[in-house]
Amino acid sequence: MKEAFDYRAVESQHYMPVFSRTIKLVRGEGAKVWDDTGKQYIDCVAGIAVCSTGHCHPEVVKAICDQCRTLIHCSNLYYVPHQSELVERLASLTGMPRIFLTNSGTEAMEAALKLARITTGRKRFVAFTHGFHGRTMGALAVTHKPPIREPFDPLQPECAFVEYGDLKGLRKVVNRETAGVVVEPIQGEAGVIIPPDGFLEGVRECCDRNGTLMIADEIQTGMGRTGRWLTLQHTGVEADIVTLAKGIASGFPMGALLSREGITFKKGEHGSTFGGGPVACAAALATLQVIERILPDVERKGALFRKGLADHNPRVMGLMIGLAAGDRCPTIQAYCADKGVLINCAADGNLRLVPPLVISDEEIRKAVEVLNEAFG
To answer: Is the peptide bond before 157 cis (omega within 30 degrees of 0)?
Structure first.
């Protein structure tokens, strides 16, 4: 009898040990996933806010499969199937008319930094404590977390960090040499940290005063996650540059750089072999169609989480939920997994829930029940 493949042993020998993981997921449908033992979970991680339409949504699967039968790749040397339809749709939904498509969020942020520098002629940036913008060298330079940034110092571009929410501190460091201020409308990796009222408006005003570009990182908060296409749309603030990824294509690798009119790369200033390929664009178009139908219900579902977890003072905006757990964070995460609910320990002892936007009321009730048990 053939022995089962020991993937844990093979991984420990060959795969660089950058992740800590114990569960192997093998199947997904809607807001549920199954591991290799057959155990079922309610997935409140969703690939870290990626699988917004749920796992293997039939419309997205069909769009991917149909495109794979005709053309998988042709590069951006040619007009790409579905690309023009997608950028037109994104421009309509976000109000940002200039778009460049990438393969990931960190690529979108790298492009944003390049675009801000070439547009302003300046080299310095400002970002915020506890912010996360990616792990490539430029994106890492504007990411605050010292343990993941400092081993790679010195980094470029030059970046100053200000406490998230501190407009007074921001005004002290932004000046006529600042190319851009990079800000998350809600800090996701930090554990769903919602800024104080008026903060984003203050960032916009500070940028305007100094001729600095406001760069909104909506990689985690965008594409319907908080009940609007962009979280900035809750405030009326308009950024100069927006980065998107995660929920944009239901798990197919895709990111996007968006900018207002007058801010754009010229020929030869940027490029990508794979960015905005035929399959990715097909997946993204199908994803947007599904999200458009379910978007009106996102805030109601978020309210169910808020009510059910009220004893633990949740931070909730749409289906982006944070809970302070302190040192108990890993224990609570493990308890929930054992009981069939996947959640995520983010930074600083914060639990993060970013479930598929298609999660049902019954699945929300079950997840809330298990979380309340875990908190005791």
So the answer is: yes
Q: What is the mean pLDDT of residues 28-42?
A: 98
What is the C-alpha radius of gyration for the chain, rounded to an integer number of angstroms?
21
Q: Which of 78, 142, 73, 151 is nearest to 111 (CA)?
A: 142
The residues that bridge with 241 in the sheet, in sequence order, are 215, 259
Give the single-character DSSP code of 295: G
Residue 64 in tokens? 């991917």
Q: Where are the alpha helices (DSSP H) in the chain?
A: 7-14, 46-49, 58-68, 83-94, 105-120, 137-141, 146-149, 167-173, 199-210, 278-294, 298-308, 329-338, 361-375
Question: Regarding the domain with residue range 7-56+315-375, which homologous superfamily does it belong to in the CATH classification?
Answer: Aspartate Aminotransferase, domain 1 (3.90.1150.10)
In this predicted model, what pLDDT tens digit does every residue of 131-183 receive, in sequence order? 999 999 999 999 999 999 999 999 999 999 999 999 999 999 999 999 999 99
Coil vs helix vs strand at 245? coil
pLDDT tens per residue across span 183-222: 999 999 999 999 999 999 999 999 999 999 999 999 999 9
From residue 303, alpha-carbon distances to 66, 187, 244, 358, 364 in Å are 37, 19, 25, 15, 10
Q: Is 328 in a helix, a strand, or coil?
A: helix
Helix pair 278-294, 83-94: axis angle to 10 deg: 30
How many of the other CB atoms lie within 10 Å of CB of 35?
16
Domain 60-293 has CATH 3.40.640.10: yes
Q: Report the alpha-carbon distance of residue 308 to residue 300 in Å, rounded.
A: 13
pLDDT exceeds 90 at position 2? no
The domain limits of the chain are 7-56+315-375, 60-293
Of the chain, the percentage scoring pLDDT greater than 90 comes to 97
pTM: 0.96
Backbone angles phi, psi at 96, to 5 degrees: -110, 110
SS3 state of residue 138 = helix
Q: Is 160 helix (H, G, I), strand (E, B) or coil?
A: strand
